[in-house]
Design goal:
The protein is mainly β and 142 residues long. The chain has 1 helix and 10 strands; from the N terminus they run αββββββββββ.
Length: 142
């Protein structure tokens, strides 16, 4: 009787292995940022306004790329909730996304270090690739 159960058990295990989700790389699924302007700032509090960081602000553009206000471009990788700038003016910076529209800069240990970047505009859908503010109209100004 045990000989009959063995092939059936293997079939069940094989089916489970085939249907298990597989991630392309360690760190989580691959994503892209919401396209459009990302405004970076140092957070404020009840008494102090946020401090704008225009030199850190960027525009997310197609192909996992970004563009600075001066037109310089770079690329990024977004695995799970960790955003890493992989080339260009912001190369080496890392952020953790709190949600699809806000990222906080982190250090090598994953600790928050101050600046945050917020997507300007409201997504037009759950997985919208652009924003409804019209800010993704091809202009390079941030």
């Amino acid at each position: 009787m045990n000989r009959r159960l063995f092939p059936a058990s293997l079939a069940v295990i094989g089916a489970l292995v085939v249907t298990a989700p597989v991630e392309a790389v360690p760190g989580g699924p691959i994503h892209t940022l919401l396209r459009g302007r990302w405004i970076c700032e140092l957070p404020g509090d009840a008494e102090v306004q946020p401090t704008a960081l225009p030199d850190d602000s960027f525009r997310a553009i197609p192909d996992s790329s970004y563009q600075m206000a001066d037109g310089k471009r770079g690329t990024y990788a977004l695995f799970g909730r960790i955003l890493t700038m992989t080339s260009g003016p912001l190369k080496g910076r890392r952020y953790q996304l709190n949600n699809r529209a806000m990222a906080r800069q982190i250090d090598a240990a994953g600790e928050f270090i101050g600046p945050r970047c917020i997507h300007a505009g409201t997504p037009t859908g759950v997985d919208a690739g652009d924003d409804s503010s019209g800010s993704d109209n091809g202009n390079s100004d941030i």
